[in-house]
Amino acid sequence: MDIGQFRRAGYQAIDRICDYYISLRDMSVTSQVEPGYLRKLLPASAPTVGEDFQLIADDYLKYILPGLTHWQHPSFFAYCPASCSFESILGEIYASSMSNPGFSWSVGPACTELEAVVMDWSAQILGLDKSFCNTTEVGGGVIQATACDAALVATVAARSRYIHEHPQVPLEKLILYTTTQTHSLGEKTGLILGLKVRALQVTEEDEFALRGETLEMALKEDVHVGLHPFILIATLGTTSSGAVDRLDEIGDVVKSHPFLWLHVDAAWAGVALVCPEYREVCQLPAINSYADSFCTNFHKWGLIQLDASCLWVRQRKHLTDALDVTPEFLRSKCGDAGTAIDYRNWNIGLSRRFRSLKFWFVLRARGIEGFQKHITNCIKLNTQFAQGIRESDQFSFVAKPFLALTVFRLAPQSLSHLTTSELNGLNRAFYARLAARDDIAMTQTELNGVFCVRMSIGAERTVEGDIDRALAVIAEEGRIALQEWEN
Ligand code: PLP
């Protein structure tokens, strides 16, 4: 492809992206293809002779687009949101046009310096303590691909700190704490690092949040049997119910265990901290007082597309102590002198995408007010949805609605005599009906044995009418599921 052809294909790509967004509302939310659909449509091997790009671009529309779920669709309410904004798309286009692996300051100074700046800007807009900022040269922030990577990196740093302080402790005695509501990233981190993992119990009475006394008790038990708890992965906004672990109480316990690292995973909910009115309920004061590391994904609710996971640490030294491996070919003048950040020592991989550019574009183009508007709008829409659930005699909440998440189930008064397992059966049937539709997407989950449905709002194009329609859809599917149940 020469420059002229690239220019034409590029203009066409932007036109097609615009057309996509113009017609998005009229599309199905989920793809209806069957597994293996694409292999049947594509040749068994790559072409020997290069093909005309127009044909390739047309085939994208013909074969690929029908197999995609449209996460930006106004009726996409599944999982967590996956942000995408035009400013962010442009950031990705410019960044990919350079393909600069930016692993050290010296191989692309702007990549590193912009990342350090936008991570500080992001810390500030969320109200994080300034000890997390890069300007301190002690703490700092780094963009990771995902919250799973962030948890893994934080755990590696915590383990390194612990072993440094307790060199006599065998690795098999270390134990990582999560809760029964922590995202699967906790268990996966343990799997990858070969660590023991203990999921601390949370209860419905505590709104599925970890309490300080549960942590205290677990520490006593484990220390008593010779184990060494060295990190707790706590959560602000759990995936299943939006629970916020009691970081104030946890902080009090952590204070008396100086080498127990507190990582706060706020992958989904963390961006809500941009609104001062949600900081208290999101336990920001405790995060600022006690967390050793904090993660939130701008690629979930923060208007920046994948991958945009922010990890801040109070002491960057623990990251670099654990992850700095510098063979001769990676040495540089300022790396040796320690006068610049080499971000390769703050994550697992070496080469890094130039992710900070899209942060810079979006943070500047939207401003703090733009983020606040997006978050408050989603929360307002969720209040509308939750009100519909409250007023219905068909449905009930399984957890208290939080921010832009409502967890509910079909539980009509007339069936209050059903056992949990019978109600679960009814709700599985109800959810199967929802999942079979292509015009709306929600996710199922289970909370301490109760099967339920999650409504998670975050797409920028969702408006009040979409919430009314979602309420009408669940009412209709609920009615049919009940009818079928009764027959
Ligand atoms: N943590 C929480 C609380 C989440 O809800 C999710 C995703 O839903 C994750 C972590 C995983 O995020 P990522 O895909 O960036 O690893």
TrEMBL record:
Record PTM N6-(pyridoxal phosphate)lysine, positions in chain: 300
Domain of life: Eukaryota
Pfam families: Pyridoxal_deC
GO MF terms, alphabetically ordered: carboxy-lyase activity; pyridoxal phosphate binding
GO biological process: amino acid metabolic process; carboxylic acid metabolic process
Keyword line: Decarboxylase, Lyase, Pyridoxal phosphate
Cofactor needs: pyridoxal 5'-phosphate
A cellular component annotation (GO) from this entry: cytoplasm
Family of the protein in this entry: Belongs to the group II decarboxylase family.
Name recorded for this polypeptide: PLP-dependent transferase
